[in-house]
TrEMBL record:
Keywords: Acyltransferase, Biological rhythms, Cytoplasm, Melatonin biosynthesis, Phosphoprotein, Transferase. PANTHER family: ARYLALKYLAMINE N-ACETYLTRANSFERASE (PTHR10908:SF4), SEROTONIN N-ACETYLTRANSFERASE (PTHR10908). Belongs to the acetyltransferase family. AANAT subfamily. Residues 28-189 form the N-acetyltransferase domain. InterPro entries: Acyl_CoA_acyltransferase (IPR016181), GNAT_dom (IPR000182), SNAT-like (IPR051635). GO terms for cellular component: cytoplasm. Transmembrane segments: none annotated. Pathway: Aromatic compound metabolism; melatonin biosynthesis; melatonin from serotonin: step 1/2. One of its GO terms (biological process) is melatonin biosynthetic process. It comes from the Eukaryota. It comes from Coilia grayii. This is Serotonin N-acetyltransferase.
Amino acid sequence: MSVVSASPFLSQDLESPARQRRHTLPASEFRPLNPQDAISVFEIEKEAFISVSGECPLHLDEVRHFLTLCPELSLGWFELGRLVAFIIGSLWDEDRLTTDALTLHKPHGHTVHIHVLAVHRTFRQQGKGSILIWRYLQYLRCLPYVRRAVLMCEDILVPFYKKSGFKVVGPCAITVAHLTFTEMQFAIRGHAYMRRNSQF
Ligand SMILES: CC(C)(COP(=O)(O)OP(=O)(O)OC[C@H]1O[C@@H](n2cnc3c(N)ncnc32)[C@H](O)[C@@H]1OP(=O)(O)O)[C@@H](O)C(=O)NCCC(=O)NCCS
């Protein structure tokens, strides 16, 4: 089964014959990303991160890398065919994030590492980031091998992720240039496992 046909992101309307006959772009569409989306992803990243701090979570080749290896762990929000927000994840197989997690996809891991969530500048503060992460977490519940989602973020964004149900794990071991991060996690399943490994 292809990634797209297995995806719960496509509404029935998009798959109906009536929809297939129509040639206009859908007003709003959620779907996994593919390597052809990498440039649109990177355009948003450049504005969101590089223009602010000179760094970004994933460079263009890394975006292509993850969208080739594990497109099913990404999610894009398109409006009239234009990418307005996205998430890129990969699998990780250790309790805590280390620098290897920034570049590796561990196919046998049970943890989804969310590398980046970003909303196009003109669409921020409209609830899109919260909606996208909610849909993504709902989707992860459909993947039997996923136990939890983890991410690292700057302290200022901890309240944003807490509102989406993430809990603080502790200071992240990874630093990028002068930036430090907090590691956060969201339990997908296996609550006993989560309790054993959570310090907070
Ligand atoms: C962070 C981001 C994804 C949030 O998406 P969004 O669609 O603007 O967020 P929502 O409209 O769903 O939620 C807005 C809430 O997030 C908080 N928030 C958003 N960006 C924030 C920021 N840079 N600093 C602090 N809080 C922020 C707001 O305070 C707001 O909270 P409120 O509802 O209590 O006012 C978006 O601002 C973005 O893409 N930023 C640049 C990239 C980035 O920093 N990504 C996160 C990497 S870990």
